[in-house]
Amino acid sequence: MNSINLTLIIGIILIIIGMKLGFDTGLTKGLSHLIALIVTVATLFLILMIRSSIHSGHIKSSIVYIVTLVILGAVYGVVKFILKSAHKVSELPVLHQLDKFAGIAVGILWVAIIYMVMIALAHRGLFGSFGEMVVKDVHESSILTYINTYNIMMPKTR
User: Fold this and answer.
1) Is 156 a member of any domain?
2) Residue 30 falls within a domain, yes or no?
3) Most CB atoms closer than 10 Å: which of 27, 57, 94, 143?
């Protein structure tokens, strides 16, 4: 029985939206948004690890994760400052169009990260029946299975 794989269709639509958003945003501003998204996902991961290590009684691990979280915040502040300077340079007339076209790749990466996090969270059972549909769609599609196999954005529980 062939059914419509809604999760794959959503992924394709997200890629198109990411291309448009990336072009509109540009490379330097898009990189700033992409790094913010990666830091957000890393922060979520670290918070989950802190919670897990506290519940299992591993206080030393909790302290290491908290220190890592603080370092991540400091590095993000420095990178954000550097990218803000690069954005000012990219506003020059010659570089502006190149910046916009290069932003397409960043837009695709941005939505791909969101998509992979959503799939990982669905596998953790956080979306109820919608998450079950996503998990089923992933198992039925070779493309989504490949994406999920190499999904490094979130730790797998299964």
Assistant:
1) no
2) yes
3) 27
